[in-house]
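Researcher: Last one for today. Full complex below.
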Amino acid sequence: MEDFLQMVASGVVIGGIYALIAMGFVVIYKATGIINFATGEFMMLGAFFCFTAMTAAKFPFAAALLAAAMAAAALGALVERVVLRPLMGKAMISVIMVTIGLSSIFKGVAQLVWSGDYRAFPPVFPRAPVTLGSVILPSRQFYPFLISLASCALIAILFRFTRTGTAMRATADDPQAAFSMGIDIRRVFSLSWSLAAVTAALSGVVIGTMGGISPQLGAIGLKVFPVVILGGLDSIGGALLGGFLMGILENLAGGYLDPLVGGGIKEVAPFLVLVAILMVRPYGLFGTREIERL
Amino acid sequence: MRIGDFKETYAADEAIFRTPAVRAWMGALGAAMLVFPFVAGDYLLYLANLVGVMIIAALGLNILTGFTGQISLGHAAFVGVGSYAAAIGATRLGLPFYLCIPLGGAAACVAGTVIGVPSLRVKGLYLAIATLSAQVILEWVFSNWDSVTGGIRGINVPPATLYGVPLDTDFRVYFLIYAVAAAFTYSARNLFRTRVGRAFIAIRDRDIAAELMGINLFRYKILSFMVSSFYAGVAGAVWVYFAKVVTPEYFPLSLSIQFLAIVIVGGLGSIQGTILGAIFMTLVPELLKAGTEAVKPFFPDAMSYLFPLRDILFGALIVGFLILEPHGLAEMWQRVKRYFALWPFRS
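Model: Here's the assembly. Have a good evening.
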């Protein structure tokens, strides 16, 4: 039981981060209908921005986080304007491949600028572990978890209650209607990319503080797919719940199945679940079911 | 300028190589390919073999993605299934290569069907993600199913033998690879002149309209998936005889992306484009490598920039082609040809 609780607790921690990554992903999908395969690389760049602000510019953590978020927002808007807008309305494969191409470019640039080495993040949190009942959480898991939870809440509030958030939801619902109501949908598109890039940067920083950073950090971005498919591609709430469920599931699978099948099941289990979901309920727990008309 | 190109019989109209000029050029190409291994050095031969394998695999992906409109991010995994099947056939079952290559294709075809059936209930973005998970899962199977795949150590494969001659050098394997590549290019070209191929194209252009015309969507999508993974499997099997060893890290997600890049840079829905794309995407990194080596005397640490630059160039090629030349190299080639066909009347 102790083991079980510990596993669930670490699952919730990592799940909070997955939820944050998935939110950035869903924001883009909702607003523009694009699947962003470069999510992981946006995370990696965000983490490096924050890292550079802290080490080279000697910013305190909060200021560095803010600077990284602003840089990420600018990058998101730039990418949308230069790369995605010319492809608006093009075939699915073009849009998917262009984000894959972007991820390759980002990875290369990061290696050029920061070299391919692994680096430890400067310590930012108190070192004492946090005890919750019978579960002990290392501080480098607990505080990042709080950050990701707070960011999730912030984004959800932004989407729900602000004027811009309402415009984004309206555009997601029906771009043409939104356009005719006077919403500048181009602005909404670039805002969505900025918001998603900021979200990704935050989750990148969170992951960086947990385990260090390298240009390979983006690989974790792949995990976003099982999460969003479980939650539903276009549901913010689904992304949250899906993140936590996947985090827990992955940890339990790692704990109980690994001895049976010989390692690595933790990485694959989410994808096995993904396939199962696609077979039963492809639009996920809370996604909108697509109805096609000719 | 080409004139007087009249078809007087159905046979002439249906011919694959339609004009004497095309036939002459194809003959010249064939002759050049036969002469090539005798004049090329080891390095060029190695590259040529690599290109040959890439052509076979990328043709398969283009059938699925370019002609049927179903995106797959798991193509490398199917190549892997073919490789492993051929390797096991060659080592444990002791089969000759002319059985192992179809065996690789068949195994990949079965794997493709198993994964295709659930995946094809969904489409577009969902299909991309479903095939992505197929890639992740199969990669895991390759490295963890030790008793069959040999785990991370992989399987060593003896060279193919033909009439007692071992095909153990790049020079000898060249003929095997290009014989297979030629046959598969020819059948791919022919496929789209048949009922099945036309059905694929109809599905790509508008799936619901195709269904209304009486095309059984699910059946033809599965068929396309099977053909595509068969190509992948054959490419994997041929590749095994070229590389002599098969290990899990030969089939990462990045290889799947490389195939997609070939198809996009070459031209979606173009056989000729696939070939051009495979050549281009294999040679560009090599040219970059040669370039960095050339500037090494001036910038001593140039080599350390090679891998990052390669990533950037790879990404930039994909993004650039998608935005500036969405029909790929095939379209550029057509433009060049049109220019000369109409010369000197229109420049």
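The two ends of chain B are 12 Å apart (CA to CA). The domain at 40-342 of chain B is CATH 1.10.3470 (ABC transporter involved in vitamin B12 uptake, BtuC).
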